[in-house]
Amino acid sequence: MKYMLMMHVGRDDGTEVLDWAPEDIRNMVEFQRAFDQELEESGEMVFNAGLGWPDKARIVRSDDGAAVVTDGPFPEGREFLIGFWVVDCDSEERAYAIAAKASSSPGPGGAPTGVPIEVRPLAGPPPVDA
């Protein structure tokens, strides 16, 4: 079964990580690389990516076939999606274990950050009535 694991960050505007000591940033990046490699080697990684800061996000709607692009409205919130993994694993419990490991990424001083990871199964297309 495939699951999307979504990492939400930003207790303020999400840039607090930019104030971390360089060695803390390095530790977090090394953790993420090792974590991704572990998922690759186990065959569970389907795809993953980090996302740009919310100020780069845009809303696009179709208006008579033309793209109408705006910079909002966005829900008011203190957290936002910063990255995700799509994994293919044997069970929901395994998806939860992978998410828990992602959540344990180190922060300042090496303490686990406990970043929330939303886990959702991927759904196929709806059935088509014949």
Keywords:
alpha+beta
Q: Reading side by side through the largest sheet, how are the strands ordered? A: 2-5-1-6
Specify Rg, calculated over alpha carbons: 17 Å
Q: Roughly how much helix do the residues carry, as a percent range?
A: 25-40%
Distance between the ends: 27 Å
Q: Return the string of H and E elements.
A: EHEEEEHE
How many distinct helices?
2
Structural class by sheet pairing and helices: alpha+beta
Note the overall shape.
flat
Give the percentage of residues in beta strands: 25-35%
Overall pLDDT, averaged?
89
Topology, number of strands: 6
Low-confidence region ranges: none
For the largest beta-sheet, the strand count, sense and barrel status come to:
4 strands, antiparallel
Question: How are the secondary structure elements laid out?
Answer:
Layout: E1 2-9, H1 22-42, E2 45-50, E3 59-63, E4 66-70, E5 80-88, H2 92-103, E6 117-121
Antiparallel strand pairs: 1-5, 1-6, 2-5, 3-4
What's a concise summary of this model?
The protein is 25% helix and 29% strand. It has 130 residues and is of the alpha+beta class. The relative contact order is 0.29.
Q: In words, what does this structure look like?
A:
With 130 residues, this protein is of the alpha+beta class. Helix content is 25%, strand content 29%. It has two helices and six strands, in the order βαββββαβ. The strands form two sheets. It has a four-stranded antiparallel β-sheet, covered by helices on one side. It has a two-stranded antiparallel sheet with strand order 3-4. The model has no long low-confidence stretch (mean pLDDT 89).
